[in-house]
Design the sequence.
């Protein structure tokens, strides 16, 4: 899983929603919005991660740059 834990105050932890990526994935942003996702590895993916009572991972399929 690809999670970001942020510490707040006295040991409290919170999962911040955001974007995570496997090794080999690049995410190109234009004006704070995702423009393109590419990968040098055929099975690598990016994910939009959020917490709604449980961790939610939505797969963002990159364009594979290999042959």
Sequence:
């Amino acid at each position: 899983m690809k999670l970001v834990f942020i510490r707040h105050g006295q040991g409290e932890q919170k999962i911040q929603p955001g974007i995570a990526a496997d090794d080999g994935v690049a995410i190109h942003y234009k004006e704070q919005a995702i423009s393109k996702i590419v990968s040098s590895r055929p099975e690598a993916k990016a994910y939009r991660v959020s917490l709604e009572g449980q961790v939610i991972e939505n797969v963002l399929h990159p364009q594979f740059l290999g042959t």
Q: What stands out?
A: The mean pLDDT is 83.
